[in-house]
Design a protein that fits this description.
By secondary structure, this protein is mainly β. The protein contains 3 helices and 17 strands. It has 3 domains: 48 residues, no CATH class; 75 residues, Hepatocyte Growth Factor (3-Layer(bba) Sandwich); 66 residues, Hepatocyte Growth Factor (3-Layer(bba) Sandwich), CATH 3.50.4.
C-alpha cells in the first residue's frame, strides 16, 4: 500500500497514491493534514478521525463525554432544526451533534437514515416516524421532558372528567406529572387534560366549571 516497506498503514486505499508521493528521508510517508482530506464516510479517515457530515472532510474525534437518552420509541419533536443529513447512521448523527456546542439532541429515522440535529430541548414530543435522542453532557441532562415534574399540586376534576377546547399544545407519551410540569413552564397554561392509557397530554389555556366525561382527566393548575 505504501511506497516504503514497514510503515504503519493509516490511510485508506484511495489515498495511497497521494500519500506515497510525500516521502521523508527515512522512506516513510509524511503525515498529511487529515482535516483537509475529503471523505464520504468514516472508512476514508484514519484512527482518531471521523468523516464530518457537514464539510465532508476528516475531523478529529470529539473528546466530549456526551451521551444520548431516548425519550421513547417513535417520540420526536418538530421544529428547532439545526442541520439535516440523509443516508447516515444513528452513531454518526449523534457524533455530529456532539461536535456542535449548541446542539441539544437529534431526531433520527432509522428506515431512511435521516438525521436532524436540534437546538432546543424536546419538552413536548409527539408520535411520528423519527425518535428523539436528548444529549446528555458532563454527567447531567439538559432540561428534559422526562424530568419534568409539577412545582405545585394540581387538582383533578374527577377521574375521566375533562374540559374540552382551549388547547395550547398536545404531547404524547407523558406521565401525569410530566404533563403538569409542562404546564408549569407556560404562564398561559391553566390546566392539562391527560389520558393515562397512552400518555396523551393536552395543555389548556382555560379550565371549566362543567367538565364532561371522556377518556381524559382534567387537572387544574393552582
Amino acid at each position: 500500500m505504501f511506497a516504503s516497506k514497514g510503515c504503519r498503514s493509516r490511510v485508506p486505499l484511495l489515498l495511497a497514491t497521494m500519500v506515497s508521493l510525500l516521502v521523508v528521508p527515512y522512506g516513510c510517508p509524511a503525515e498529511p493534514d487529515w482535516t483537509e482530506v475529503p471523505c464520504t464516510g468514516d472508512e476514508h479517515c484514519p484512527d482518531g478521525y471521523h468523516c464530518d457530515l457537514g464539510s465532508e472532510l476528516c475531523a478529529e474525534e470529539a473528546t466530549s463525554e456526551s451521551g444520548y437518552a431516548m425519550l421513547g420509541e417513535s417520540l420526536s419533536c418538530a421544529g428547532n432544526d439545526l442541520e439535516v443529513f440523509d443516508s447516515t447512521t444513528l452513531e454518526a448523527c449523534q457524533e455530529a451533534c456532539s461536535l456542535d456546542e449548541i446542539c441539544t439532541g437529534v431526531s433520527f429515522n432509522p428506515d431512511l437514515g435521516r438525521c436532524v440535529t436540534k437546538q432546543a430541548p424536546c419538552l413536548c414530543p409527539s408520535m411520528g416516524s423519527e425518535t428523539f435522542y436528548e444529549r446528555v453532557a458532563a454527567g447531567k441532562t439538559i432540561a428534559s421532558a422526562n424530568e419534568l415534574s409539577p412545582i405545585t399540586s394540581y387538582i383533578s376534576l374527577g377521574d375521566g372528567m375533562d374540559c374540552p377546547f382551549n388547547d395550547i399544545r398536545t404531547c404524547d407519551g407523558r406521565t401525569g406529572e410530566q404533563c403538569q410540569g409542562l404546564c408549569d413552564l407556560d404562564s398561559e397554561c391553566s390546566g392539562v387534560s391527560h389520558r393515562a392509557s397512552d400518555g396523551r397530554c393536552v395543555t389548556k389555556s382555560e379550565s371549566c366549571t362543567l367538565p364532561i366525561p371522556g377518556d381524559h382527566t382534567f387537572y387544574v393548575k393552582p
